[in-house]
């Protein structure tokens, strides 16, 4: 009896956590999808690509003033009504095809694990596979996912040179087998990598780097991120050390929190300007995640905003931590 109650509790807390992680990644995927869908729709002539993406573009000039007010999108978009209609169209029609090739036991299809600091890559694979945007019919797809997990390759001890060769052979086999790549030279293809080796592993295929959409949560700045087509994927460090924080603003007594190394210009300035500010909780130095009683993680519970300044590396789980513990990442 006792043990079954316990199990139930464990299960339900697992579900809560799981759905939170899931929704984080789903959000990232949705952003990616809507972003690329909208940009593809406006940038490609309608003769190209899958047959007639026949989306009604609403006349942006009309009636705009009437219905913007009181709406949660109000201030964010130039034309919230147009955005909403297009977004609804996208949700209905948008499709992604996942190439089925490759042995799922090696580097393709399956994430290595959903823990550690590269968990975002695994979640991305899992969520896109289960997504309602997935189609098994490549002819109705708007985007094509290249399912190669560099993280998994690294886990198998593959050398960097061999990774480059493996990725090159794999993508070249897709290019010769299917007609889809050649239609756009890869511009409607995408892949995900949460590890800098993933960036190196694609070097053998310049078009993959230059044309395809890369969802990267790279640890370094030297990955040649191309803002008009690449998408930043937040890192998430799994599992979370403590349960999710709630909407408990009365317990969040400090306005903002940051603790970290002063290893970038913005961090040095931030610390210099705010270190003695009584409304903020700015630590002199980094607090290790492992510090007894999870001091670092608990600070997230007591603050309204969590400051996420860029450091010497891009690598940071701070944004995902902030959302999980209930403070607003800024
Ligand atoms: C790289 O590939 C070669 C040829 O397949 C193989 O002999 C070698 O063991 C591989 N090295 C590593 C570290 O994977
Ligand atoms: C795509 O183009 C490449 C290079 O021109 C060619 O080798 C390949 O066979 C083409 N793929 C298909 C499916 O026709
Ligand atoms: C605020 O903190 C107190 C003491 O830890 C706790 O009992 C209470 O439930 C918290 N409030 C909310 C809304 O979580
Ligand atoms: C903050 O306080 C410390 C100790 O009093 C002082 O050395 C430092 O200059 C102060 N920083 C700022 C920005 O005022």
From TrEMBL:
Record has Manganese as a keyword: no
Subcellular location: Golgi apparatus membrane
Transmembrane segments: 20-40
Domain Exostosin GT47: 90-330
Entry GO MF terms: glycosyltransferase activity
Entries under Pfam families matching the protein: Exostosin_GT47
UniProt main location, coarse: Golgi
Keyword field: Glycosyltransferase, Golgi apparatus, Membrane, Signal-anchor, Transferase, Transmembrane, Transmembrane helix
GO CC, one annotated term: Golgi membrane
InterPro entries (alphabetical): Exostosin, Exostosin_GT47
Domain of life the protein comes from: Eukaryota
Family label: Belongs to the glycosyltransferase 47 family.
Entry-linked PANTHER family: EXOSTOSIN FAMILY PROTEIN (PTHR11062:SF43), EXOSTOSIN HEPARAN SULFATE GLYCOSYLTRANSFERASE -RELATED (PTHR11062)
Name this polypeptide is given: Glycosyltransferase family protein
The species this protein was found in: Medicago truncatula
């Amino acid at each position: 009896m006792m043990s079954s109650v316990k199990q139930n509790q464990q299960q339900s807390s697992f579900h809560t956590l799981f759905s939170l992680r899931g929704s984080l990644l789903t959000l990232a995927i949705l952003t990616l999808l809507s972003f690329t869908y909208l940009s593809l729709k406006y940038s490609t002539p309608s003769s190209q690509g899958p047959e007639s993406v026949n989306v009604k573009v609403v006349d942006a000039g009309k009636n705009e003033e009437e219905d913007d007010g009181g709406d949660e999108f109000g201030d964010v978009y130039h034309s919230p009504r147009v955005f909403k209609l297009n977004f609804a169209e996208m949700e209905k029609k948008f499709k992604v095809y996942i190439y089925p090739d490759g042995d799922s036991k090696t580097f393709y299809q399956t994430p290595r694990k959903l823990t550690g600091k590269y968990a975002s890559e695994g979640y991305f694979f899992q969520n896109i596979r289960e997504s309602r945007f997935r189609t098994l019919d490549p002819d109705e797809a708007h985007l094509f996912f290249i399912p190669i997990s560099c993280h998994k390759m690294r886990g198998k001890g593959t050398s960097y040179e061999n990774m480059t060769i493996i990725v090159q052979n794999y993508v070249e086999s897709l290019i010769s087998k299917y007609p889809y790549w050649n239609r756009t030279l890869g511009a409607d293809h995408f892949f995900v990598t949460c590890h800098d080796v993933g960036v190196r592993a694609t070097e053998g295929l310049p078009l993959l780097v230059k044309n395809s959409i890369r969802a990267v949560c790279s640890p370094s700045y030297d990955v040649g991120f191309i803002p008009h087509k690449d998408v930043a994927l937040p890192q998430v460090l799994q599992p979370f050390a403590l349960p999710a924080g709630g909407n408990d603003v009365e317990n969040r007594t400090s306005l903002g929190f940051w603790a970290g190394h002063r290893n970038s210009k913005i961090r040095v300035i931030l610390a210099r300007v705010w270190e003695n500010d009584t409304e903020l909780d700015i630590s002199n130095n980094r607090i290790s995640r492992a510090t007894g009683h999870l001091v670092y993680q608990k600070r997230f519970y007591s603050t309204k905003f969590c400051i996420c300044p860029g450091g010497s590396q891009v690598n940071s789980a701070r944004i995902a931590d902030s959302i999980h513990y209930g403070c607003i990442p800024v």
